[in-house]
Amino acid sequence: MNYKPFSKKQMLVLTWWHGISRHKNHDAVICDGAVRSGKTFCMSLSFVLWAFSHFSDSSFAICGKTIRSLRRNLIVPLLTELRQLGCEVNEKHSENLITVRFQNRVNRFYLFGGKDEGSASLIQGMTLCGVLLDEVALMPRSFVEQALARCSVSSSTFWFNCNPEYPSHWFYNEWIKKAKEKNALYIHFSMHDNPSLSKKMIKRYEKLYSGSFYERFVKGRWVAVNGAVYPFMDDDSAYVDVPKGRFSDYCVSCDYGTVNPASFGLWGKIDDVWYRIDEYYFDSKIEGYQRTDEEHYEALKKLINSRNVSCITVDPSAASFIEVIKRHKEYNVVPAHNNVIDGIRTVSSALKEGRIKICRNCVDTKREFSLYRWSENSNNDSVIKQNDHSMDDIRYFVSTILNSDDSDFAVVATKRF
To answer: What is the CA radius of gyration of the chain?
Structure first.
């Protein structure tokens, strides 16, 4: 791998623990700030170098939101670099264990995913010399504190890395604001702290985000979200006509409701772009009656209209409707990946990058884009649960089908008979 010289902040991350550093007596290091600022790679490499300079035949933990994202974002580039540095690396995927040997020393690095409250039990009972928590702001506090409690060996340290979230977030208040009190070295990154990121690429990222997400992921600030969720969709130029070309694939995304509205989106793919070419939207409160699962299924078939649909993704809480689709044996169906805030981010990026486009004939989707708002609750990131049914089914499509590699499961289309 070819790298440009490290920036001043990257060098600080790489060397803060060294014997001649004035920061060597810190108990923790915290790196936060903009996306693509070069903090993750430097921190992971520094973590391993520190481990070998202080310990041998010892255990450490490297934690991410999920094992899949941790391997993709941190472990793959880290192990490539370690091998180039002359380390012998042995992976045991079934045990989520990486053993690294360098000269006459060997250490063990266990991988953990901290995606929910139940994850804390995974790391209980271990004795660790150090822990690296990547994307720590996306992990539940119970998991993080359980991981820190495992570091009972003398000279053990805590390593934190994250992008900003809302200003009342527990990690911001308990660790970043109290960094001096907790004897933690705090290093804030911007995109300009990554020498390998060109000015052209920085401008691209600046265009990719808007509103509060721009403040967080480009400016690296802990700010609250407010106003419209997708403000850039207010202009009619954000929408397109249904393409005339030949679609190579079709999928459907469903937000199911009986009392609440049901929203189904039909997606067609041309080249690498998915178009929302049609929709079904039924609001029982407006229509004056409710539809059954079977009636919604007939509406789904009408929306598809004999097209060869490779996959249907459905709100995972709609178990009865998923069962109806399975029972008819006409379509492949998968429960949707359903994380609201992460999903909104991925939808925003997909729209900004042009990976998905909304056609003008999807009038209920256009209406909801104009009305979908963030809640004014400053204690967390949340959206107002109104005018969100098309918004939810779009999120299901992006998180589960468009970005299937980022989920904990893969969407597989099989031939129907």
So the answer is: 24
Q: Residue 335's closest CA among 400, 390, 389?
A: 400
Q: How many helices (H) and strands (E) does the chain have?
A: 15, 15
In angstroms, the Cα distances linking 334 to 227, 277, 396 are 32, 21, 10
Give the span between the Cα atoms of 257 and 263, in whole angstroms: 8
Q: Is 114 helix (H, G, I), strand (E, B) or coil?
A: coil
Q: 208 pLDDT band (50/70/90 cuts)?
A: confident
Q: Which residues contact 124 (CB under 8 A, 6 or more apart)?
A: 146, 150
For residue 338, give both structure tokens.
């359903």
List Cβ neighbours of 287 (8 Å cut-off, separation of 6 or more): none
Burial of 15 (0-12, 13-18, 19+ CB in 10 A): middle
Per-residue confidence (pLDDT) for residue 3, from 0 to 100: 60
pTM above threshold 0.90: no
Q: Would you call 59 helix, strand, or coil by DSSP?
A: strand
Listed residue (268, 221, 217) closest to 34, CA to CA: 217
d(CA 45, CA 411): 33
Query: How confident is the model over 146-169, as pLDDT tens digits?
Result: 999 999 999 999 999 999 998 889
Q: Name the nearest CA neighbour of 300 among 287, 290, 288, 313.
A: 313
Report the alpha-carbon distance of residue 130 to residue 157 in Å, rounded. Answer: 5
**C-beta separation of 168 from 382 below 8 A:** no
Distances (CA, A) of 85 to 2, 54, 100, 148, 150: 13, 18, 12, 29, 29
Strands (E), 222-375: 239-240, 249-255, 262-270, 273-282, 309-314, 333-335, 356-359
Strand partners, 185: 29
> Which residues contact residue 320 at a Cβ distance below 8 angstroms, ignoring those fewer than 6 apart?
293
Q: What residues have CB less than 8 Å from 368, skipping those under 6 apart?
A: 387, 388, 389, 390, 391
